[in-house]
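PT: before anyone asks, these are the final sequences, not the draft ones from last week. 346 residues across everything. Please model them as a single complex and drop the result in this thread when it's through.
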Amino acid sequence: MSLINFISTLQLQEITYPAKTTLLLEGNKAKFFYFVKEGCLRMWLNNDGKDITTQFFFEGSAIASLASFLKDEPSDYSIETIEPCSLFVMTKQDFIILKKTNPAFKIWLDELILERFYYYSKHLVSYLRTKPQQRYLDLLQKHPEILQRIPQHYIASYLGITAVSLSRIRSRK
Amino acid sequence: MSLINFISTLQLQEITYPAKTTLLLEGNKAKFFYFVKEGCLRMWLNNDGKDITTQFFFEGSAIASLASFLKDEPSDYSIETIEPCSLFVMTKQDFIILKKTNPAFKIWLDELILERFYYYSKHLVSYLRTKPQQRYLDLLQKHPEILQRIPQHYIASYLGITAVSLSRIRSRK
DNA sequence: CTTATTTCTTAACAATTGTTATCTTACCAC
DNA sequence: GTGGTAAGATAACAATTGTTAAGAAATAAG
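LR: through. Structure below.
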């Protein structure tokens, strides 16, 4: 069952947030699990005052600080809307109940963790395998929507470089 | 229950391998799940003839190409002993049966996937957060055993740099 | 012990990125 | 519209890394 179909069976509350709204701040425990109906968001963390974006989320994806949510620990990451967003919101209580009582949800959750695991694995390998310039070109080819919808300095930190360096790479091409 | 205690209840076959033995070659499907009794191993992948080490494994840890094992797909990684190793070996058949019939094993496996997920997440963030020199110093502080037991060129590729650059970083300190 | 292989270091140069700063452009709020 | 903020481009210089090569040191094999 697709995520969207599954979500629709849960009758979750839908909430709209303006752009640049923080949904979870680094250091706090995650209380909500979100599903993106419309808009895009980013997960990021603070590093000596500079923020580093670790992941982007678009329509159709689930977003939460999984580690914080599953272990009930303070989150290493913040979650913030980039564009105005329309999200389905699941409370932690609902999440815990669903996980225990709904086998389909448990299967879906296990799959999500595994997928996120693959995602990090692939992303990590791209760092070991390629240089920033190649990572940019790969991103351009595989996810052009990111380049079009997301401000460049977020993309730069996602690629592991400065905004200045990304601008240079773009002009070199 | 600790991994070691749990393993001992399974009565797995113990096999000894010499150093530099390949247990799984990139492109093949993982058929075995290993538990390290003695020695150390590495997971690596080929990149245009150069090999990139992605993870080290020591006594007490479980090692397998999880993605390949769980999805029955060709592995993106190779697994190789670094030192002579004494390993407990679980066949895929045993694995599948245990996963279905032994709740404790399923719980342990879910935990392993989650831990591996955390590991990749942390490792990835260290790439976004720090430069090679700092990553080396962090590794030196957190896992000095790696620096002592593992050849430097493996560590270099694990840190995302060349062996030459690692040697330079070490001499700078 | 001797030889061969592997591992590690060092050097020189090219290429890339980081840093700082300035400037232009785009966008939002009033 | 106007002012203010954010985003992006560019330049100059410093610092780091990659590449190639050569040699020393350590390890393994016979």
